[in-house]
């Protein structure tokens, strides 16, 4: 799904969630090539100018999430939980740790030992970043979320300094696990339900590359 | 007066960084209207106002990190006792009902209050940013250009595009900024009332953009395609920094700010290495197709020393020392307009031949810009060879988050005293800049002595 469209959808859902019109949501999708910059991001971490990006077919979006700069693209599972934290733990730190846990548990399904590095949000495998996290919260309702490299073409990260960190990135494929974004998203939805203690109502189904992978409504 | 405090965003959070004020002193706020933003742990949060009233003072400025429950501002509930500034546009509360929709600064009142108000000290992006008005000058604008224009408060209608089809590129904006950015853009022909303090006043009516490639209205301040200064006053020439240069500049300043640098310099007798090199040079070139330099010897000696003193191969993470089990050596490579530090991974598993091969390969690909992102990351120690440019010795800057960098000076035949006799030896000065937070001089010099010992008593075969 196009990043701009996903952003609109998130904003709409977050708005409805704030008004209590809908239950918590989890959007799972894949974006075409795009580089996004967090609200407090540093443009210096974008290593290419817009002409280079244009040639490489990469869009660029400044956004209101936390974190610095990141890349999204095919082969990457992107998750946007729209969760009202007042009905959960009212704890931003715990929320981020829980999202990390969902990813760590998902990776464990594939025999990958993901872990945390103190002070560096995200999920890491042997010092390499496999999943990035950037969250926006308004009135305790979350938006934006995480991006897990399943089979991402990591060469696209050359255009940025991911999250402003000069640390390497990796993907499940690079670690020898050849799974599709769709498969991983199913596994992840299950772990999300367990960690956040909610039931996934809509089972994520796949809509093919470039489309939304599906979205589950959480209750 | 109501105190506004840094909220507790959960048990696990003890402090937050105030990243942005969405309201200014003197502005009216509604209860629950987002008033500022904080950042904790990759999470940005909008904080709603605890009460309705007038924001009377801001106690914590943007960028500061404070503990929870710190008072960051005060709100005057009476809504009158505002600070000197802006007379409020009477009754109606701010227009933005649902502020969070877009990240635009919610100060839409700015233009209205712009009766001859003295220019607010900081040129914060007031006024509906030019980017949001549909005054698209020529062709589509990239988000980067919009962002730049917003940051510099520029009316893109005045910027001449040099991109495809007259499209405005980042460089055009930067050139424009460097040209006129300093002084507020006084609209020469434009609507009269606008006081000079209002640079980005959008053109009264959006020029309907006809698909004509030449950019819109009269380029006012002699805006040539390139950032040339107006003819006749060419005392300076202004050129925007390349992205790489910006990146380097930031890294250097960050490193100097992060680490108290100390540099120690050791004189090393490279005669043995020089002889070894002399002996094998021709054969080496014939066998492998590249020449044998001093660099792989120094890399090899550093690896041996790093093994013995792993603290030099570590990083600091808060109050923790992170020891790296791999020895990955970054090699500074000079490029035409900058430098890059590709990494020889697992350098401790390579002999002189393997190291030389890696150096040649990485340097060649660095210069042709074909390095993979992987190859410039994960270094644990760096070496820079300024001797190849004739430098005797220098004090390099640490490549963060590493804690030390070795510099290699020229290798020169030099008269030295050995056993009270004067001899001609191949002398090289090796310098080591180290992070004094983690490493003391004694350790640094032990490390250097080890490297020196390896080089002076070179025993490994090369071929």
Task: Describe the structure in your own words.
The complex is a heterodimer of chains A (219) and B (463). With 219 residues, chain A is α+β, with helices and mostly antiparallel strands. Chain A has one domain: BirA Bifunctional Protein, domain 2. Chain A has four helices and ten strands, in the order αββαβββαββββαβ. In chain A, strands 6-7-8-9-5-1-10 form a seven-stranded antiparallel sheet, sandwiched between helices. A three-stranded mixed sheet of chain A has the order 3-2-4, covered by helices on one side. In chain A, a hairpin with a 2-residue loop joins strand 6 and strand 7. In chain A, helix 3 crosses helix 4. Chain A is globular, with a radius of gyration of 16 Å. Chain A starts with a helix and ends with a strand. The C terminus of chain A is likely disordered. With 463 residues, chain B is an alpha+beta fold. Helix content of chain B is 22%, strand content 22%. In chain B, the strands form five sheets. Chain B has a six-stranded mixed sheet with strand order 9-18-17-16-12-15. In chain B, strands 1-8-6-3 form a four-stranded antiparallel sheet, with no helix packed on it. A four-stranded antiparallel sheet of chain B has the order 5-4-2-7, with no helix packed on it. The longest helix of chain B has 18 residues. Chain B is elongated, with a radius of gyration of 30 Å. The interface between A and B is large, with 59 and 48 residues.
Features:
heterodimer, A: about 220 residues, alpha+beta, BirA Bifunctional Protein, domain 2, seven-stranded antiparallel beta sheet, three-stranded mixed beta sheet, 4 helices, 10 strands, about 25% strand, globular, disordered C terminus, B: about 475 residues, OB fold (Dihydrolipoamide Acetyltransferase, E2P), Chloramphenicol Acetyltransferase, six-stranded mixed beta sheet, four-stranded antiparallel beta sheet, 7 helices, elongated
